[in-house]
Amino acid sequence: MTTDTTDETIRTADVVLLAAGQVLLIKRGWAPYKGCWALPGGHVDTGETSLAAAARELEEETGIAVSTAELRKVASYDAPGRDPRGRYATVAYTATLPSPVPPRAGDDASAARWWPLDALPHLAFDHAEILADAAPR
User: CA 127 to CA 6: how far, in whole Å?
Assistant: First the structure.
C-alpha cells in the first residue's frame, strides 16, 4: 500500500454562536466566497488546538470573546471538495449567549451580524450543514 503525502489536509475551526433564536455570521472579505455569509472561523495555527483556534477566530472576526470552556464540539467536517482551495478539515463548536452582543467585524470579515435562524442568507462552504447540526430547530 502506498500513501500519497502530497495531499496535506489543512485544519480549521468554526463557531456557531447562538443567542435568542439568532446566529452570528460574518461576511467574508476574501476569496473564496468573498462577499458571502459564513460562520466565524479560520485556520488552526501551529501548536494550537482547534478549540483554542475557534475561540481566537471568533474574537478576531467579530470582537466577541467566548472562553474555550463555553464552547461545545458539534462535529468534524472533512468531505472532499468542502473548500475550493483544497483539502480542508474543520472542527465546529457552538456556544449560546443569553442575548446577542453587538459584533464588530475584524480580521478577514467585512461585516458581522446576527441573523434569525428562520431567515438565513445563503451560506458559504458547508456552513448550512454545520449550522443545521448545531442549532436546535
Answer: 27
Class of domain 10-134: alpha beta
The answer to whether residue 137 scores a pLDDT higher than 70 is no
Give the number of other Cβ atoms within 10 Å of residue 100's Cβ. 17
pLDDT attached to residue 135: 85
Q: Report whether 31 contacts 113 (CB < 8 A).
A: no
- Per-domain residue ranges of the chain: 10-134
**β strands within the chain, DSSP E:** 10-19, 22-28, 37-38, 41-43, 72-77, 88-97, 109-116
* Global pTM value: 0.92
pLDDT-above-70 percentage for the chain: 93
